[in-house]
What we know:
The chain is α/β, with parallel strands linked by helices. Helices cover 33% and strands 14% of the residues. The termini are far apart.
Amino acid sequence: VDQPRYDEGLLGAKLGIEDNNTTGRFMKQHFTLASAVVPLDGDVVAAFRDLVADGHMLFVADLPANELLAIADLPEAENALIFNVRAKEDSLRGEDCRANVLHVIPSYAMLADGLAQFLMWKRWDEWFLVIGAAEQDKLFADALRRSATRYNAEIVEERTYDAAPGARRSDTGHIQIQKQMPVFTQGVEYDVLVVSDVRDAFGQYLLYRTWLPRPVVGTQGLVPLAWHRSQEQWGATQMQNRFTKSAGRWMTERDYAAWAAVRSISEATTRTRETDEAAINAYIRSPDFGLGGFKGQKLTFREWDGQLRQPILLAESRTLVSVSPQEGFLHERSELDTLGVDRPESTCHM
């Protein structure tokens, strides 16, 4: 049903390079992208070392958490700057943080907080939490529990749904959807069904099929995202159109994060008029840095964990519903720091 997502992340980086060179012409700067696409069973570390050997020290890493840490911990990466555009694990911004990694993709905590703020604004404070069996499902569920505590919501019921592997097409229909899902969700009163099904194994089946007529949010239904194809505010339409024209498909979260990473480098070189990695790294981490990301305000990196501050979009399949932080959620430095792990909570020691 969904459009195939080929070259996810890579096409966003390529659009960033095009934008960089549009700006760079006035500064007599030129940007190039050297890409290494590693097969699922390939050696990411070897590919990284090859790029370092060719003189590259600025990296956009569209990798899962374990492989991101594998390259960040290499001796060759000590002076590199690595932008994480895929892995959302909170541990990467906490106890597993690395001084040479900046995180462009929002963390699970940021996504959960963005969703929770909207739910509390709606006064939907009693949650029924449904969790998948995958590890990523459990990590996002942890973030949702943290958000519930943070914003004084109550998880009135918590259940795990084990979507065993099977034939997705033949396993649907009356047995699984129309009979099983209502029974699975009955037995308790709640305001909203919150789903943690990152791998998209069963969550879509819950919409319109709960025992009580309640909205579904989380990884399905109303979803917190870094980017969505329905985003048109703050000049985003022109970027959506440019990406669709060049890529032949919609921009995804990973595409947007890769674009933002590449654009961050251009912002640093334009402002400092320097092109060496140390100057770029220092400026991006400084209070003077700010990225225009088509989200209504300047985006900056948190100095305590390397996470890009940014609004969280709340969208369903074809419509942008809201943008967090919500009105009334205040912070002493930046309202964007109401999303995710704040400085006093951080366990990152770089």
